[in-house]
Amino acid sequence: MSAMMIAGFLFFAGIVVFTSWYRAGNARVNTLNKLFFANRSLGFVLVGSGLLFTNINAASIIGENELTYTNNMTVMAWGVSSVVAMLLVSEFIMPLYLKMGIATTPDFLTARYGADVGRLVSVIFLVSYIFNLLPSVLYAGAVAFNGLFHFSDVCGISYPTVIIVLVWIMGTIGCIVSIIGGLKAITKLDILLGVGFFCGGILLPFFGLKYMGNGNIGEGLQALLTKHTGHLNGIGTSHDAIPFGTLFTGMLLVNLYYWGTEQYIIQQVLSSKDLETSQKGIALASLGKLVSPLLLNIPGIIAVHVFANMHNTAEAFPRLVSMVSPPFVAGFISAIIFVASLTTFNAGLNSSSTLFMLNIYKPWLQKRSKQVTEKKLVRTAKQFEIMICLAAMFIAPLIIFVKNGFYTYVQIVNGFFNVPIFTIMFMGFVTKRVPGIAAKIGLGFFITCYAFTQLVINTHIHFLHILAILFVLTCGLMLAIGKFYPMPVPYTLKLNNLVNISPWKNRYYYAGILFILMIAMFVLFSPVILAK
């Protein structure tokens, strides 16, 4: 751990902290609308950067590079193929949300199926965030920092102890930023993170190739393209982490859920000025997803050439950064990971509080005819954020005991929540008479069957294919219930838009360009070109 590395970290982190403090000092967060939705005033750059960097965090940087190191470039499909889902969400789902003027996705379920279903899904979201999202982000950040700064070696402290200390430091800082600045402060950080992320995405591969070529970038690139070429293959077989067929089954469903239903993601879009702004923001985030392999996957490929064997493969990325980069650049990249962890963690905290306050706490107050001031509601929301932050910090260190790769663990656990919720959302979009009881039975059926296939028996079928099969079966079950026990009065959409809902006129041109670029990425990382 050199002085220059610390200087590089403080340089970028200092800019971010100062900006966050400055924004917080100039904008009092004294209403729920400001705390959760930035007064629905975000421009497309804020929306796009918020979407992208709420998605990209330490967990994805560490996890995707780990899977690229242990498998190959097939893992890039999580991000690159999401462009299709994002464009579909932009065209069909976001206009619906903005027309309804909803604040959370459970609001739609409440309107479509009834209050019980909305509350149930709110609870499922909260459980998912408390036990999976927030702890995994903190854990990944802690692993990255220990790999970069070697705290366990320098301080002579055990690895688990270092992870616990780092988790609590990051969680505390993240919680403070979230409760002081609200959503707008979080999205302001995302713009700075975007600049840092793409600088790091250029610098790290540059120094990695230079290290591989013993100071000669050309020789390093030659080695990358001629040795271990199997790792450059993004077209997965059944033996790979992401078989190519899953892009058209479970992965498409997971991405549709994530970009169109996940509360901490869509909250960025629901805070936009209007529909046109939200669609431009989604297009900007889609472009970012196509560039993101520079920092999410390419370092994992370089690590294959640098490290013959690693005991803890989760440290492939941080160990590579500290080995091949100049100290100042290594510190700069570590600050990027730190800020990336904060943005996702803060967004998760903010959305958890949104779900609790708007779908559980406020309805409870209204049911009891209790009148509470806006100031008291804001205080309660911030207290709830502190509570779930503490829970996440206690749970995060336990992830150290997970086997089969950290990122795979995150995605498999997500399967208990994501596609089941998307399934009942989808049926709510495309049907008018399927009742609330069908949504409850469908959720229970899906989650129970998925748990059985993951925890009890080994089906030898990829979990993404399992999700697709259960999606079809659950839809069939809900349709059958709707046929025999239909709603007496069909559901009708009620308009309550709070912003202008005129769509972006040029969206189809940009969508076509993004789709072509996505296909080009898969062709590039295939046996046709790079993986010969």
TrEMBL record:
Keyword field: Membrane, Transmembrane, Transmembrane helix
One Pfam family in the UniProt entry: SSF
Gene3D superfamilies: Sodium/glucose cotransporter
Compartment(s): Membrane
InterPro entries linked to this entry: Na/Glc_symporter_sf (IPR038377), Na/solute_symporter (IPR001734)
Family annotation (PROSITE patterns): NA_SOLUT_SYMP_3
The keyword Zinc is annotated on this UniProt entry: no
Membrane topology category: Multi-pass membrane protein
Membrane spanning residue stretches: 6-22, 42-63, 75-98, 119-145, 157-179, 191-209, 241-260, 281-308, 328-349, 384-402, 408-430, 437-457, 463-487, 508-530
The keyword Transmembrane helix appears for this protein: yes
Record NCBIfam families: PRK10484.1 (NF007790), sss (TIGR00813)
Protein family per UniProt: Belongs to the sodium:solute symporter (SSF) (TC 2.A.21) family.
Protein name according to UniProt: Solute:sodium symporter family transporter
Organism name: Mucilaginibacter angelicae
